[in-house]
Amino acid sequence: MNDSTLPAATAITTNVTLRADMGQPFAAWQSKFTSGASQAAGFLALDIAPAFAGSPDWRIIQRFRSPEALEVWRTCPVREQLFAELAPMRQAGGARADDETVHALDPLSCVTEVIMTVVEAGKESIFRSWAETIQASQSMFPGYMGTLVQAPVSEEMQYWTTLVRFSTPAQLDAWLGSTDRKQLLERVQPNVASWKSYRMQSPFAGWFPDTGDKPPPAWKQTALVLLVLFPVVMLEIKFLSPWLAGLHVSIATFIGNAISVSLVSWPLMKVAVFFMGWWLRPEPAQRRRREMLGACTMLGLYLIELAIFMLVF
Asked: pLDDT, tens digit, for every residue of 4-39?
């Protein structure tokens, strides 16, 4: 356990190596673990995935909203009981119950390529072996942030899903266009019926243009959205709501939301990003100073907005 990262940690990753005959018991255990974790205070998300499809090595990422909530979950009797139930399923000499790492995990701090692959019938074992090979190759590239490979989940969805994560779009593009990857794709091509891929980026990607660098942290993006959305909503309450009072609540809400989204998307967010760009993506040499100055600026702007609307209302 790396306790040095605990003060800033909001996630914990547990590594598990299963015995060969524990597939079904582990599936049932996952359901119980998901239920237990999701009921914990401050729970944010849970990601349980194998190293690759069919692998006995699994990674369990438990995300929480704060370091305090994470610490409560780490020492929770429910969690301890669940891992005690998991112990007989683990491979002797494999990952131990204490094979864990606490860390900060920002879901928007990386870019993900989603690849959907239809494998030729009877060639699944070849594809699994190839997935392990390409995993080893891409992990050597700068910026690599992890991979998830998921087998087809139903008869209607006959494709393998692969998530490939890198720190920045430029680093992901470097891997996708590399000679190593092209050679590996050529090797597996006879066993694949079709490929399809797309890129997952920040949900606010349209407001924070891709500069080739890591996107602004999630909390900064959210803070800036709040800064421009709050006055729009307050002005709607003051001036628009009386005009919509005679309409059904669903219609009135739809109209208000449509106006809010339109105004925030254009031009307000573009203006806000333009003026706060120095804080969203500070230069490394000035990062600490600009982080502090930007946080103070945002706090000041929030207080100004609150003061104005407390006087108006």
From this structure: 333 456 888 898 888 888 878 887 888 788 778 878
| Domains (range + CATH), the chain | 3-103 (3.30.70.100), 111-200 (3.30.70.100), 218-312 (no CATH)
The single-letter DSSP state of residue 217 is: P
| 159 contacts 114 by C-beta, under 8 angstroms | no
**Cα distance between residue 14 and residue 37, in whole Å:** 13
How many whole angstroms separate alpha carbon 301 and alpha carbon 305? 6
Phi, psi (5° rounding) for residue 97? -65, -25
Cα separation, 279 vs 281, whole angstroms: 6
SS3 assignment, position 52: coil
**Chain centroid to CA 116:** 19
207 Cβ neighbours under 8 A, 6+ residues apart: 221, 225, 265, 269, 270, 273
Segment (H or E) for 273 = helix 269-280
Tokens 């009921």 belong to which residue?
39
Residue 282 has, within 13 A of its CA and on its CB side, a CA count of 15
54 — alpha (psi -120 to 50), left (phi > 0) or beta? left
More confident residue, 282 or 45: 282
